[in-house]
Amino acid sequence: MDALERMFGSDEKVIIGIHLKNGIFTNESIKLLHEITEKLWTMPDIVRVDSLSNYNHSIAKSDDIITTPFLDKGKHYTHAELEERKTIAMDDAILSDRFVDKRGTTFLVVGTLVAEVVRQPDYKNLNRALRDMMGPIESNPLYKNYSFHYAGSGVINDAYRDVSDRDIAVMIPLNILMMALFLYAVFRSWKGILLPIGLVGVTVICTLGISAAVGFEFDNLSAAIPGILIAVCLADSVHLLSTYYRAVRMGQDQKSAMIETIEKNLMATFLTSLTTFLGFISLANTELIPVQKMGILAGTGTMLAWFFTIGGVCPFLYLTSNFKLREKTTLNPQFAYRVVDWIEKHRRSILWISNLSMLLMFYLGIQNRVNSDPLEHFDKRLKVSRDAYFLLDIFNGVGGPQVLIDSGQEDGAKDPAFLAKVEHFITEVDKEPVVNKVSSILDIIKQLNQRLHGDDRAFYRIPDSREQVAEILLMYSMGLPQGMDLNNQISLDGRFIRLEINWSLHDSQRSLKMIAGFEELAKQLGLTLSITGKLTMYHRMTGYIVRTFFYSMLASFIGIGLIMMISMGSWKFGLLSLPPNIVPMAFSIGLMTLLKRPIDIGTSLVISVCFGIAVDDTIHFLIHYRQSMDKGMDIKDAIRDIYVHTAPSLVFTTVILVTCFGAFIFANFIPNVNFGILCAFTLSVALAMDLLYLPALLFTFKLRK
Questions:
Q1: What are the C-alpha distances in Å from 522 to residues 431, 434, 529?
Q2: Are strands 46-50 and 13-19 parallel, antiparallel or unpaired?
Q3: What does the DSSP 8-state code read for residue 690?
Q4: C-beta separation of 529 from 405 below 8 A
Q5: How far apart are CA 15 and CA 398, in angstroms?
Q6: Which residue of 86, 171, 207, 525 pairs with 301 in a disulfide if CB–CB is 3.0 to 4.6 A?
């Protein structure tokens, strides 16, 4: 990718489609095309603009090649001249389906962004300028019959940020409000509301402050940090508040209540934070910087949340005056006893049903595929999605992979034998139904060779000698205006040439399969090439990132087991902590298959987050179980005590998180929708496993210490 940008510039584009249903070849349309083309040149981070308005059409006079503008600015064309321009554009191998569609209804203006080897484009500023530029044009009554459509990576990249930010701007305050309502329903006190929400605010602010201090830029993955920290903070604070309020209601003074709260929760909250921290921090081993940053920040925020919970919430509770409590944070003992008796009686059925369901969902999960489709990340009602699919329908593709072909020597790209191999490669690629167009310097060479031979169609071919190729390119280049040279198609030393493939594919699975076929074809032809580009890089890294997340989860499984073995003083307890968390993950993966949603970067991230939260409940359950056993209780009494005192906190936390995160199903950014669905489903299954499956395991294996 760096080599491509150093030699040829960026492959990132801003594409403006100008559509007129009854035909775009009119004087009014041409005037509009000139205006938009000229204005796009002035946009920030745009280094080149191509369209029919500045395309230089070549004609031959004697032994010279003269390049003239295809569409003269300011000229009023007659109907016959417009039809002539249309016919030429429709038949031209370079122009057709590149700057105008075959039906003659849509012009494309293509702006090329500055290469990242020079500087990082500011997509937000660019798209703001683009909206400011096009706003008056779109609202102009003269153009009421036109429709304007925007595409290209420069537009899509900012749309990711814009749509995600708008979702978060709505969803996070909504989540905070819903948290407040649920917390009030549970605790009926201002402290029960303000402390968890305050903990979330302080933790998120400090985490993002650390991010800014170390120079981490905020990106799409970083946008998940607030949601992750809401879950972490809520889990810690609700357990702590529940224990404290229960102790106060039972008649203890503030000091005694706080001592009991810390004794019961210090180890449990520390272990849950530590295991979650290890799961996130393991992502730092990946080579992808955004994933590294997300893992480091989420892990850092998790430990900050624990520190602020113990060092902030506890002192605040202790120092504030007491009041009459109305909250109910315990379960009716008689109901708890009946539930535990039922679990003991049906423990084998619970285990069989759970295990078989897990195997079934896991089987469904492995039938799924790793795939990512950037266009499917947007709600179909959004303009960015409508525009992208509109232009795909009109042109059968306005973007795709970049092909860098090495001739092996200086000026080797002008060798007819080498160019013949490239032509064969292009011919085979063009046969694919998904390919709209392969743009390369060969089109110019063959077209100019034809012009120099009296427009004889027989000479629409590669010249016979290297010298003839070089002469054609020199003559053509001499007539080009500044900024419109051929350096975006052939390297300065004449060794490399660049092909741009425009196709209709936009998902990673089919794209990578097609690219592999192209690479095999090049190998058979004896061509040395690399297929790259920003979109190709994104497709290739999807599988890598998904594997990274699942390796992280595997490492977390092992780490959790070891930590539980050490903290519980028993290898059996360590192993027992794993199954209740395997089941929800299997259900999550299976659910994605049932919903026909592929596993991509977003879903694998959500599954990792849900795993970290689900583990927290298991650890709280087992820590309380060990504490009860240390007091001399038998297995049934210990589980009853958990149901009376700890289970309500687990239920409160899960209900709040399921409701809050479930609200994301109404988002416009599809990864956020997946986040809501997976979180709500996985956390619900995890709660059921901790309250049913885990006690059934304890009854079956009769673990005491």
A1: 15, 19, 7
A2: unpaired
A3: I
A4: yes
A5: 8
A6: 207
Number of Cβ within a 10 Å radius of residue 482 = 5
Nearest to 508 by CA among 365, 377, 672, 667: 377
What span, in angstroms and rounded, lies between the C-alpha atoms of 383 and 157? 14
Phi-psi region of 328 (alpha: psi -120 to 50; beta: other; left: phi over 0): beta
**β strands within 241-323, DSSP E:** none
Q: What b-and-e string marks burial along 556-582, b requiring 16 or more CB atoms within 10 Å of the CB? A: bbebbbebbbebbebeebbebbbbbbb
DSSP secondary structure of 297-325: HHHHHHHHHHHHIIIIIHHHHHHSPP---
- Residue 704's pLDDT is what? 56
Q: How far is CA 653 from CA 242, 479, 648, in A?
A: 11, 71, 8
Tokens matching residue 269: 């909250």
What residue type is assigned to position 701 of the chain? F
- The CA–CA distances, whole Å, from 202 to 112, 305, 306, 309, 609 equal 42, 9, 12, 10, 20
Instruction: Give me the sign of the Cα torsion angle 372, 374, 377, 380.
Output: negative
d(CA 701, CA 696): 9
pTM of the model: 0.83
As a whole number of angstroms, the distance between CA 560 and CA 619 comes to: 9
Cα–Cα distance measured from residue 651 to residue 649, given in angstroms and rounded to the nearest whole number: 5
Range of weakest confidence among 39-48, 599-608, 652-661, 677-686:
599-608
How many DSSP H helices and E strands does the chain contain? 25, 10
Q: Which residue has the tokens 């004449």?
A: 494
Q: Provide the 3-class DSSP secondary structure of residue 322.
A: coil
Q: Which of 16, 6, 1 is nearest to 154 (CA)?
A: 16
Dist CA 469 CA 442 (whole Å) = 10
Q: Which of 689, 638, 653 is nearest to 340 (CA)?
A: 638
Tokens of 78: 């007659």
Report the range out of 7-21, 209-223, 247-261 with the highest average pLDDT: 7-21
Dig out the tokens for 317 from the structure: 């509770």
- Between CA 348 and CA 356 the distance in angstroms is 12
For 474-517, the pLDDT digits (tens) are 877 776 766 677 888 888 888 999 999 999 988 888 999 999 99
For residues 639 and 337, give the distance between their C-alpha atoms in angstroms, rounded to a whole number: 9
| Coil/strand/helix, residue 53 | coil
* Sheet arrangement for strand 496-503: 435-439, 496-503, 402-406, 528-532
> Can you name the residues that pair with 100 across neighbouring β-strands?
96, 107
Instruction: Report the C-alpha gap between 450 and 444 in whole angstroms.
Output: 10
- CA distances to 449, 451, 459 from 456, rounded to whole Å, are 9, 7, 6
Residue 47's CB is within 10 A of a number of other CB atoms, namely 16
* Sign, Cα dihedral of 585, 586, 588, 593: positive
Q: Read off the tokens for 298.
A: 């989420």
Q: Residue 691 carries which DSSP code?
A: I
Task: Provide the Cα torsion 585, 589, 594, 596; round to 10°.
Answer: 150
Report which residue type is found at 260: E
Distance (Å, whole) CA 581 – CA 583: 5
Report phi then psi at 154, rounded to 5: -65, -35
- Which residue is it, tokens 């399969």? 513
**H or E element that contains 666:** none
Structure confidence by residue, pLDDT tens digits, 103-120 = 999 999 999 999 888 888
Q: Decide: residue 389, CB within 10 A, 0-12 exposed, 13-18 middle, 19+ buried.
A: middle
